[in-house]
Model the fold of this input.
Amino acid sequence: MRMYRSKPEKRSEQRRPKLSERAQDPWRCEADVVEGLEAIAADELRRRLGQDASLQPSPRPGVVPFDYSGPLVALLQLKTIQSVYLVLRFAVPRPRALLGDQHFRNLLACIAAVRSLHPPGAFRTLYVSAAGSESAVMTRLKEELARHTGLEIARDEGDLMLRVRRPFERGEGWEVLVRLSPRPLATRAWRVCNLEGALNATVAHAMILLAKPRPQEIVLNPACGSGTLLVERLAASAAGRLIGCDTSPHALACARANVSAAGSSDRIELYPWDARALPLPERSVDVLYSDLPFGQLVGSHRENIQLYPLILQEAARVARQAAPFVVITQEVRLLETLLAEQQVWALEGVLRVSLGSAYPRIFILRRR
Done:
């Protein structure tokens, strides 16, 4: 087998292929999403990418595969997706063959296409995730990639993230996945302050879409924490008014920092209000969102027993008729019990999502 041993090009001289060179050859892509939000992510792909994207059957939860023939830069704007990977399939029996001349050139061309989407210096380190990642073959692959890209091998997550694996359908060959961005898309640039237990931004954006946002509506986010739902609501569309409140001075300071970093200080209002007693008129709010305390990192179950019914009651007071209230919590039984005992909020749907070791649910309520 001929091994790829050409001299590495200097970074400033490295040729990066024009995307038009692949215009007749769609990219195979894979979107990582929060488990439970696959349908919402698929809807966003269809809505944003149109005919350029052809969705494929999902091999497992948390993955949305698709073929894509449009400009790669458009994929960096997706909001409900954790990360996007370009997928290269190699008809080789063992990973060692990836070092062969043609295969390695194809891999480098894919990496160059990804790097061309970002400013110089955006990629400094590389990381290869694979079974047997410390084997001699994988070590050699990492070394060759580092030599030809000018990147440093990282021991943990790197800017240039690659996965090497067998195909999901257990077919022949091997796949290499190249992440499209130096950081996951879920890592928002505006998040300069991160509270413990802060809501995942892609989950927040999915919650926003569940309420079908409208440009002129008045939005309320009780117990706003670090402001994730407010920033993501404005990222979805304009609003008539955006109001967030929290009784924690630290949370409000964090929210102000994030809102400022998002360039939205003039459009998002933040107040030190108690969600149980809001200084707002009755029937004055069009839509509500809230990441209620789970009773683990924030609050406790005993406190939630007292807090939740009061928040539901006050939200019902300020909500206009038919106003949606989208809530996420891990206090599933508590909220289900409270909803069964009242007649003000109609339950329109529930989504179970997976956030590492936590499995909260998103409740879609509607004011009767």
Notes: Confidence is low (pLDDT under 50) at residues 1-23.
